[in-house]
Amino acid sequence: MMTRLRRSSFSRWTLAAGLLSALTLGGALHATPNRAQAAHSAATDTSTLSIGWAIETKTLDPVNKPQNPDIWVVVNIYDQLVRVGNNGATLQPDLATSWDISNGGKVYTFHLRPGVVFQNGQPLTAADVKFCLDRARDPNQLWSWTLAAVQSVDTPNASTVRVTLKHPWAPFLSDIALFDTGVYPAAYYKKVGAAYMSSHPIGTGPYALQEWKRGQYLRLVKNARYFMASQYPMQHVEYDLIPNDNTRLLKVEAGELDVDNVLPYNQIVALQRNQAASALLDPSTQTNYLTFNTHVAPFNDVKVRQAMSHAIDRASIVKAILYGYGTPANSFLPRGAIDYNASIPVPTYDVNLAKKLLAQSSRPHGFSMTMEIPSGDSISNEIAVVFKSEVAALGINVTIKPVDPTTLFNDQQVGKYNFTTNLWTNDIPDPDELVSFAVDYSQGAKSFYTFYDNPTIIQLSHQAEQSSDSATRQRLYYQIQQIWAQDVPFIALYYTPFVNAVSSHVQGFHENPLGYFALQGVHKS
C-alpha cells in the first residue's frame, strides 16, 4: 500500500517516512528516553511477543482508512472469507471453507466454516459477512473500488453467502482477502458505531485486543476460540511504540524487546555479529518511487519525465542510502510479484541521453521546480539532495520543500503538489490492486495521484480484470508495464527487503512479502 494508503496506498507511504528515516542512522548507539512503557518485559515473559516500531496505530476498524501500523494489527483480529497465505502469493480458505463459481464466473457461493464464534462469544452468521461486505463496498469507503464489480450480496441461509458480480472479475477472490473485508458482528457495529469499534474491535481472528495505551503500546491476547488456535503458541502479542531507532535496537540486544521492526540498514552487518539478536531480511513487495503531478507543467511533458528518469543513478542510491540492501527498480510492480515483467530494463543512468531528451522537450534549457518531501524524513531528504544534484546537470534547479507528512498526504490526493517521494507494498497477490491504483486513472487513486490518464492502459487493465486466462492476463500486464516504462508517469527507484532485528530467544518469526507478521508457530525459548 502507498500503502495504497492503499494500501496501499498511503498506509505504506506513512510507514515509509519512519522506515526511510531510520535507514540513515549512523555511528554508535546511544540510549534515549523512550515514550513507550511496555505492559510486560519480553525478557521475563516467554508467552508474550513484543514488537517495537516507530509509527503509532490509529484505528482498528478495517474499513476506516487504515494505514500499515493499523493493518498489521487488524489482520490478527479479524478474518475474511478468504485469506492470503504466509508466502504472500497464494489464497487460502478462512471463514469460508469452500466456494462454488457459477453463471460464467459471475456468481460466487461461499460456504462458511461451522462453529465459528466472535471474540465476544456471538456465533458468526452469513448476515454478519453480508453486512461487512456491504459496508466495505460502500462508495464512501476508501477501498470500495476493489469491490466495484459486486452487484449484490445475499444470504440463502445462515451458513451461506452468495456474491453476484456485474461481470466476470478475475481478481475477486484476492479482493475479498483484502483487510477491509474483515468480519465483525453486525449487531455490535450497529450498536456502538464506527468510532467506538475502531478502538474496541471484535473479530474472529487469532488474537483479540486486551489493552491499548495510546502513545505507548497495544497488547493483544490469544483468542482461545479461534479455529486454528493451536497454531499460535504466543499468548500475547504486544506492539510497542518506540520512535527512536537506537532505543529499539538496544532493547532487543538487552532482551527487553523481541523484534525491532524498523532496523536501519547500516546496522545489519554489526548485528549479524551479535549473539543476542540477528538481522532478519525477508523478501518484500516494497517499492520506492518518485511521483510527478502530471497536471503541473512541465511534468505533463513525457520528454521531461524521461530525461529526469535517465538523470538518476539508481545503483548509487541503493549503495549510499540502503547500504547495498536493495535493487534498482525496472517496473512499478514489485520484483517477483505475479505478472511482474523482468524483461523491462532498469533505466540507464545516462546524462548525455537525459540532455538529449530534455532538448526535445518543452523546456530544452532546463527549468526550476519544487520537490515536496515529508518533514522529518531524513531518507527522503537524502534522496532529494541526490536528485537535486543529479538533475542540475540538465539545467533543472530543484527547491526542496519539507511538508508536514499528513498535510503532504492530503495535498497529494487533491493534486496540490509538484513532485515527491512515495512507497508501495502489495496487500493481496493479484496485480490488479497495484495496476488499478498506480496507472488506471478511472480508479479512485487517479494513477498514484499523478493524474496520469492513458486510455490504452485503462482499456488493457479492464481487459485483464475480466479475463480468467492467466496467460492472457500476463500478456496484458506486461504490455501495461511496457507503456508505463515509456511514459514514466512516475519513477520507480528501488526494491528493498523487509528488515527486522530479532532476539535470539525468538524462533519462527518472519514478515511476509506483504508486510504482515507471520505469527503462526512463533515461540520463545
Describe this protein's structure.
With 525 residues, the chain is α+β, with helices and mostly antiparallel strands. The chain folds into three domains: 31-77 and 205-284 and 498-524, D-Maltodextrin-Binding Protein, domain 2 (3-Layer(aba) Sandwich); 82-191, Dipeptide-binding Protein, Domain 1 (Dipeptide-binding Protein, domain 1, Alpha-Beta Complex), CATH 3.90.76; 287-495, Dipeptide-binding Protein, domain 3 (Roll), CATH 3.10.105.10. Helices cover 29% and strands 23% of the residues. It contains 16 helices and 25 strands. It has a seven-stranded mixed beta sheet. A four-stranded antiparallel beta sheet has the order 6-7-9-8, with helices on one face. Strands 16-20-15-19 form a four-stranded antiparallel beta sheet. α15 (455-465) runs antiparallel to α16. The longest helix is centred in the last third of the chain and has 18 residues, at 470-487. It is globular. It starts with a strand and ends with a strand. Mean pLDDT is 91; it is low at 3-36.
Summarize the structure.
This protein is α+β, with helices and mostly antiparallel strands. It is 29% helix and 23% strand.
Let me know the CATH homologous superfamily of the largest domain: Dipeptide-binding Protein, Domain 3
Query: What structural class is derived from the secondary structure elements?
Result: alpha+beta
Task: Please report which band the strand proportion falls in: under 5%, 5-15%, 15-25%, 25-35%, 35-45% or over 45%.
Answer: 15-25%
Distance between the termini: 34 Å
Q: Give the integer mean of the pLDDT values.
A: 91
CATH A-level architecture of the largest domain? Roll
Strand order of the largest sheet: 10-11-12-3-13-21-14
The radius of gyration is 23 Å
Number of strands: 25
**Low-confidence spans:** 3-36
Would you state the CATH class of the largest domain?
Alpha Beta
Given the structure, what is the number of helices?
16
Number of domains: 3
Q: Could you name the CATH topology of the largest domain?
A: Dipeptide-binding Protein, domain 3
